[in-house]
Recover the amino acids of this structure.
């Protein structure tokens, strides 16, 4: 009985982060201070680089329309990316077995990450980030094949040839004017010499 009472007393005295449940990146960007120190869950695409620093791995987690509808998969431009920094312990990250983060041509892994929200962390120079304690991979990485349409390639080639032709004609015209001007100076100089005083 005394052990249970002691455990309850310790739990009441030792501060533990509160749980705010699932939160969007937009909510964090709008009012991150309100969730400081709370345990939250965010779902999004891991993008950029997996930056290994000592016992930590850093990456950006984006939670925007491009996660569900990447442009190379037929999605439309719908505005800016919304993302937060995410910090995994190296052991937690290695257990995930992520291949590569999202970038052009790759939709990165989509993960549901739970962790403690650190807002303007003084120990990290004022950086805000989610300190991950667990995660669930919702969808693995996916590459997109991008084919260059033949029409676009031919149009580009035609514009290149037209630009080169205009440059040659322009240069040729300038050279012709320079030669004519130079020959006019040479002729007028001879006349002056021949009609001298």
């Amino acid at each position: 009985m005394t052990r249970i009472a002691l455990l309850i007393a310790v739990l009441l005295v030792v501060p533990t982060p509160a749980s705010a449940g699932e939160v969007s990146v937009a909510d964090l960007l709008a009012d991150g201070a309100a969730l400081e120190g709370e345990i939250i869950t965010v779902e999004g695409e891991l993008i950029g680089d997996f930056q290994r620093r000592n016992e930590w791995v850093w990456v950006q987690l984006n939670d925007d329309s491009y996660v569900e509808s990447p442009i190379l998969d037929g999605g439309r431009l719908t505005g800016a990316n919304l993302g937060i920094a995410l910090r995994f312990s190296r052991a937690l990250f290695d257990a995930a077995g992520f291949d590569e983060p999202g970038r052009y041509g790759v939709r990165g892994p989509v993960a549901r990450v739970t962790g403690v929200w650190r807002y303007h962390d003084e120990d990290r120079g004022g950086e805000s980030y989610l300190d991950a304690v667990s995660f669930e991979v919702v969808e693995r990485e996916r590459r997109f094949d991008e084919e260059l349409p033949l029409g676009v390639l031919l149009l580009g080639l035609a514009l290149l040839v037209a630009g080169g032709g205009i440059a040659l004609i322009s240069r040729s015209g300038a050279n012709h004017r320079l030669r004519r001007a130079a020959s006019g100076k040479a002729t007028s100089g001879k006349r002056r010499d021949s009609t001298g005083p």
